[in-house]
Specification:
This protein is mainly α and 227 residues long. The protein has eight helices and no strands. It has one domain. It has helices spanning 5-22, 29-48, 53-72, 80-97, 109-125, 131-157, 164-190, 196-213. The chain is globular. It starts with a helix and ends in a 14-residue tail after the last helix.
Length: 227
């Protein structure tokens, strides 16, 4: 493989992401259909050349399921529930990745924090949600909050160790994912958000890159406290 190719994948993803975001202001939906999945595919290609053992396998699974969700959500109405389910499983895969070297809920504060955030989001969303979507959305928010909290817990547990920097990227990814999806939910069910496409997609792809970047670029994944 061309050794320069991995270094070119993220700039290519950035360009494709900008074209996907521009599809709304330009009223050219074809840009979204082509470049939204392609952006995530390029991030997968970038993550593929990183290391991390079984953690890498689960991160790649999460990215692949996210790609399925991206394609489903190209049809915002008919594809919303399938996309929601695909992303729910993506977060489950990321959660498994973040428990390969640390116990689940190894630190409690991130879980308390994200539980409060998730409860607040659901408090505002609940009256606006169609009855048929309440259960799936509740399950999705719980999965997202657990994933983000575990990433934060791993980062907290690894403070002062060689793996702290990589764990910080995963924690950032979880926080950005929560931001992206909360913005999407508000925009879809409560009220229009200014520059919604930019806010939702930019934070979404930054989250995916941050999670992929939590994999080591060389050598094995950091060894944590998992027995």
């Amino acid at each position: 493989m061309n050794q320069r190719l991995p270094a070119r994948l993220l700039p290519a993803a950035l360009l494709c992401g900008l074209l996907a975001i521009a599809s709304g202001p330009l009223a050219l939906p074809v840009l979204n259909f082509v470049f939204k999945p392609l952006t995530t595919l390029l991030i997968i290609g970038w993550a593929w050349q990183r290391n991390g053992g079984t953690t890498r396998h689960w991160v790649l699974a999460g990215l692949g399921l996210s790609l399925v969700g991206d394609v489903a959500l190209l049809w915002p109405e008919a594809g919303f529930l399938p996309g929601l389910v695909a992303f729910l499983f993506a977060h489950a895969a990321y959660l498994v990745a973040f428990t390969r070297h640390e116990y689940f809920a190894i630190r409690k504060l991130p879980f308390a924090t994200y539980a409060a955030v998730a409860a607040t989001v659901m408090w505002f969303l609940w009256p606006a949600l169609p009855a048929a979507l309440r259960g799936p959305v509740l399950a999705y928010v719980a999965a997202l909050a657990c994933m983000a909290a575990q990433a934060g817990a791993v980062w907290q547990a690894r403070q002062g160790t060689a793996g702290a920097a990589l764990a910080a990227r995963a924690a950032l990814g979880g926080a950005l994912f929560m931001t992206s999806d909360a913005t999407l939910a508000v925009n879809k069910f409560l009220a229009p958000v200014p520059a919604a496409g930019l806010c939702i997609l930019a934070t979404y792809w930054m989250a995916q890159v941050a999670i992929a970047a939590s994999l080591p670029s060389d050598g094995p994944a950091p060894t944590g406290r998992r027995a």
